[in-house]
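Re: that chain you flagged

S.,

Sorry for the slow reply, it's been a week of failed gels. I finally had a moment to sit down with the sequence you sent. For the record, here it is as I used it:
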Amino acid sequence: MSRTVLVVDDHEDFRRSAGALLDAEGWQVVGHAASGAAALVAIERLRPDVVLLDVQLPDIDGFAVAERLAAWPSPPKVVLISSRESSAYGARLTHAAVLGFLAKRELSGAALAALVD
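Prediction finished late last night. Pasting the structure tokens below so you have them in one place:
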């Protein structure tokens, strides 16, 4: 069964490459968003199973987007992603309303599945 994912990142090249990678590894990428505000609109419209959410976005950071999603009646599963290592976020990451974190260089369909399954 295919799982749906929305890729949220402010860099178009990363959105494109992450989408292609996840598509090739059995995920159904249903959309992309370049900002936190656009992500919230897309999530409400597309209802993905999983949101791959960049921490650093130009408007609302990934932590704030995840917190807003956690208040929804049926929120998607959220995995934060960053070009930085998890240690850069410390306790903030520990207390985030997400299933996990991946450094961008670690992204794979299997790594994402390991966090959300």
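What I noticed first: The helical segments are 12-24, 36-46, 62-70, 90-94, 109-116.

Talk soon,
D.
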